[in-house]
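== Folding the chain ==

***
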Amino acid sequence: MNQQTTDVLVVGSGFGGAIPAYHLAAGGGRVTILERGPRLTSGHFEHSMKLGTFNRMVDVIQGDGVSVLAGNCVGGGSVVYFAASLRAPALAFERRGSIGQRIWPAKLTRTTLDPWYDRVEEALPVARTTWNDVSYAGGLFAAACQRAGHTCNPVPLSVDLTSCTNCNWMLSGCRFDAKRSMLLNYLPAAESHGAVVRPLHEVQLITPSYLPGYRYAVAYTVLDGDDYTCTVESGVIHAKVVVLAAGAVGTPVILQRSSLFLGGVPAAVGRYFSGNGDRVSVADIDEGKVRSLLGLSRSEGTAYKALPVGRPITAATYDYLDPGAPEFERFTLQQIYFPPLTNLLAQADGSPGWFGLAKRDMRARWQSWLTLLAMTEDDNEGTFGAPPVTGGFTRLAPGLGKGTMRYHPTPRTRQAWNVADDALRRIVEKDGLARARPWSEQVAGTVTAHPLGSVRIGDNPATSALNANHELRGCPGIFVTDGAAVPASLTVNPSLTIAALAERASPVITSRAAETGAAVRYRATLPGG
């Protein structure tokens, strides 16, 4: 078995892993990054949903009542996300949920996080889009909102708008390097300072280290690049500090499996899992009404038929983010695009059955669909069962796994979904413009690409696994900086908040590494600076 040492071991290379890895490497630390997935570049990204392409870097992990879409490659979720980059509203940080007390740490508010948002927006950078950057589907949603008496806005994106071709294949990575993933900023900057990225390395266990000067030993297996179910070799890396950023599905499982060796982990590990309140609906648009009610038309004599045209996310309404409204009644409605294959994850409520002419006719009109995402306030009701023998989940096939998550919505979560569904219907069904059909839970349960909260930060040790500095309670030197640390749903896409929290945690992690004897200091620079 291979044995190595490093100052800081980072598990995962998405937003939560790449950002602290960069700062620690830039400060002089020896940094090693272990990533479960393969290393891919723009030349590997194909505009295809064929097996063997997208499922090399995207996993659908099915649990009990929930399915999670997760990135699986160097760069993590930043490679396959849709680049919507929004700051969470102030009300998200004041949530109390079902525990009856403030969920977020007292010193963490929108105001205190704003300077860290500023840094991330500069580093990526985030583009402030205009209506000229909005897709036809986004424009249709905006027109429907206006007609129903609501505002709608272009969504800020981490995209180089000058090089984006509007190909709408973001789920498969960006062939044109227009999407500003971690592959283009923090990761190469970390490597330029000596950080080592090791793809296809899956972390299994964290134990105390027996080497003098090192606190933890991290066991890993190396996966076969052609068959992730096969192990090529195994090894151990001894580290002074460990940063866990394996995602909200992977991070809690590593800690659960390590609990006995670490002398126990907080009870909140593997609890309070959230899907960010995600609620997907399909609006089956009446092409004739698009022309007569909204006055819209495209070339070739069509009124809409534009679902796959443009970027996946371009427009949203924030009218329902009223801080004076009761909790579980506040949400964002956002135009979004999912490839047709992804739509098979769930059957739309009220749609024809899986077989027969009616279902065939509905699928034949898929270009006239308007897919919409409501991001609501859920109840953090998800939990994780006993960890599998290896890995974060049991791999069933390429791109498909069985996880231990259990998510059965509480009445409060369902109330939030119902309020959002009603608002959506009032917009898109006005005067027969469309028929809205929320995705059913019968096939894949709740579906989310925004898993959060499974190892969350907080002030109360009874309801949080991490302190306000992202350090695991009772395990000094272990930090969690991915979506698992975000304590509650945000009502917006969470990537920018995860990144801002990782920026905020980086000085603390650097200080902890220095306390252990690592020759490192926080320099406060940004990639390219």
